Amino acid sequence: MSTLPQVTGQRLIRALARAGFIELRQRGSHVLLRHKDDLTRRVVVPVHGDSVVKPGTLRSILRGAQLSADELRELL
């Protein structure tokens, strides 16, 4: 796996939207997204202002979204 890009929560949500994810709901600073075709692909993205999503959290989000780091980089 290649190195992970540094992204904010808002930028990650926009990239996931390009991959077919839609926003279901938000509670506080966490946004729940689901893929429009595959209901099992659900992820929670933290949106804490302009702070960067930590690498472990980003890796977990990508695993849940079934995307690789390279695929995310193309969506950004």
General description of the model:
The protein has a single domain, classed as Metal Transport, Frataxin, Chain A (2-Layer Sandwich). Helices cover 37% and strands 24% of the residues. It has helices at 9-18, 55-65, 69-75; strands at 21-27, 30-35, 42-46. The longest helix is centred in the last third of the chain and has 11 residues, at 55-65. The two termini are 17 Å apart.
Walk me through the topology.
Layout lengths: L8 H10 L2 E7 L2 E6 L6 E5 L8 H11 L3 H7 L1
Antiparallel strand pairs: 1-2, 2-3
Average pLDDT works out at 92
Could you tell me how far the N terminus lies from the C terminus, measured between alpha carbons in angstroms? 17 Å
Radius of gyration: 11 Å
Order of strands across the main sheet: 1-2-3
Number of domains: 1
* CATH architecture heading: 2-Layer Sandwich
Under CATH, the topology is which? Answer: Metal Transport, Frataxin, Chain A
- Tally of separate helices: 3
Query: What would you call the shape?
Result: globular
Helical residue percent band: 25-40%
The arrangement of helices and strands along the chain is HEEEHH
CATH homologous superfamily title: Hypothetical protein
The largest sheet is:
3 strands, antiparallel
Low-pLDDT ranges: none
Briefly, what CATH class?
Alpha Beta
Features:
3 helices; single chain; alpha+beta; Metal Transport, Frataxin, Chain A; about 80 residues; about 25% strand; about 35% helix
Put the structure in a nutshell.
This protein has helices at 9-18, 55-65, 69-75, and strands at 21-27, 30-35, 42-46. It is of the alpha+beta class. The chain has a three-stranded antiparallel beta sheet with strand order 1-2-3.
